[in-house]
Design brief:
- By secondary structure, the chain is mostly helical.
- It contains ten helices and three strands, in the order E-E-H-H-E-H-H-H-H-H-H-H-H.
- The protein has a three-stranded antiparallel beta sheet with strand order 2-1-3.
- Strand 1 and strand 2 form a beta hairpin.
- Helix 9 packs across helix 10.
- About 3% of the residues have low confidence.
Length: 219
């Protein structure tokens, strides 16, 4: 994996995004997955992807360097392009690369945020800390998260867990003598094992074993 600075360029409008990573190839894959699922945190880049599609976007490694030098080279690269093509031609949201990389934020930035927060508080703009959402808002949030990759993965895990529970319950189900005779009779008449398992709410393995007289050996 490559450590360094990379560029994502939109060949349709020549706008660019500058980023850094200790695993550039993996980071590009993450970018594409987020963009495909319409869940990228950078709204400018996401809107461009939605408008132009994936074709015009080009990925390029600009600088290879040590991990400790990433902040320095990223800032230098962003400043270079900002001075040559202009900030309006860049998809980057924040000029403070420390914020984007997850490093500690400068004191000046923290003070500015505190001033903004206090100003909004005076104007009556409330933050949602500890605030309970109403049912309508919860529904909107739920709908917006339905196609997110992490919720899809969670939903698949829950479905698998539910299916395993059903299979376990079916495997523990007991059939009466009358039901066993009915199953064998229907199977001989042409009903397949899967349909019989669904009809009698048991695992297909139970159907297979009783048809072959491995279980319920009476006739």
């Amino acid at each position: 994996m490559t450590i360094g600075i990379y560029m994502i360029k939109n060949l349709s409008d020549n706008k660019i995004y500058i980023g850094s990573s200790k695993k550039i190839e993996r980071r590009w894959t993450e970018h594409k997955n987020l963009l495909k699922h319409n869940s990228h945190p950078n709204n400018h880049l996401q809107n461009a992807w939605n408008k132009y599609g994936s074709e015009p976007f080009e990925f390029k490694i600009l600088i290879r360097c040590n991990f400790s030098d990433l902040p320095k080279y990223e800032k230098k690269t962003i400043d270079t392009y900002k001075n040559t093509i202009g900030w309006e031609m860049m998809y980057n949201i924040c000029e403070d690369i420390g914020f984007e990389l997850g490093h500690s934020v400068a004191k000046e930035t923290i003070e500015k945020r505190n001033i903004t927060r206090q100003k909004k508080k005076k104007e009556g703009i409330q933050y949602n800390y500890g605030h309970k959402q109403d049912s309508k808002t919860k529904t909107k949030i739920s709908n917006s998260l339905k196609n997110k990759p992490w919720t899809l993965k969670r939903r698949m895990a829950e479905n698998n867990k539910s299916q395993k529970a059903k299979d376990k319950q079916r495997s523990n189900s007991k059939l009466t003598r009358k039901q066993v005779k009915e199953i064998r009779k229907k199977y001989n008449a042409g009903v397949n094992k899967n349909n019989l398992a669904n009809q009698y709410q048991v695992n297909e393995r139970i159907i297979r074993d009783l048809i072959n007289y491995r279980t319920y050996k009476y006739k």
